[in-house]
């Protein structure tokens, strides 16, 4: 298994950090950093990067990720493998569920990266999402507000699928 893996998260209330920490324990040999602690040199040092953000308000990235993404898109990401996970609220924001993850996907899709970790959308109840493509989410979608009881199972299954691809 590739030991050159970085998990980057942005977390205001702790939920995304919790998911990132759980993923680190499941995807062994991965380093974990908050978005504010990542430099261009850090990005260059890893071949696989797992990015996790929550969605705030109406489809906005988490605050730390706004600044991080500005730096990230300036980097040469050619040949890197990217996996995404996002947190959203299907009930209160059904029209922008996990849009933060979708925004990351849109910003990185033309940067020469290979995306892994799509996740089926059939067990979710939302109206619209920038992270939704042809029946799948572009990464792991979680709803800690309304479905926290499903998160552990989803995280474990997604981590297993990621490990198989690395």
Automatic annotation (TrEMBL):
GO molecular function, one term: FMN binding
Cofactor entry: FMN
Domain Flavodoxin-like span(s) in chain numbering: 5-163
Record's keyword terms, sorted: Electron transport, Flavoprotein, FMN, Transport
Matches recorded under Pfam families: Flavodoxin_1 (PF00258)
Function field: Low-potential electron donor to a number of redox enzymes.
Family according to the record: Belongs to the flavodoxin family.
Protein name: Flavodoxin
Organism: Natronoflexus pectinivorans
Lineage, uppermost ranks: Bacteria, Pseudomonadati, Bacteroidota, Bacteroidia, Marinilabiliales
């Amino acid at each position: 298994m590739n030991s050159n893996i970085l998990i980057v998260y942005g977390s205001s209330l702790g939920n995304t950090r919790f998911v990132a920490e759980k993923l680190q324990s499941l995807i062994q040999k991965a380093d974990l950093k908050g978005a504010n602690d990542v430099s261009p040199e850090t990005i260059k040092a890893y071949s696989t990067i797992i990015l996790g953000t929550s969605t705030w308000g109406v489809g906005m990235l988490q605050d730390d990720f706004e600044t991080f993404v500005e730096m990230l898109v300036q980097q040469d990401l050619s040949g890197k493998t990217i996996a995404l996970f996002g947190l959203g609220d299907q009930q209160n924001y059904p029209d922008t569920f996990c849009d933060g993850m979708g925004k990351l996907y849109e910003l990185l899709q033309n940067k020469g990266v290979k995306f892994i970790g799509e996740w089926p959308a059939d067990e979710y109840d939302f109206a619209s999402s920038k992270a939704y493509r042809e029946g799948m989410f572009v990464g792991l979608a979680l709803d800690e507000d309304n479905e926290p009881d499903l998160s552990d199972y989803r995280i474990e299954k997604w981590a297993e699928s990621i490990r198989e691809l690395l």
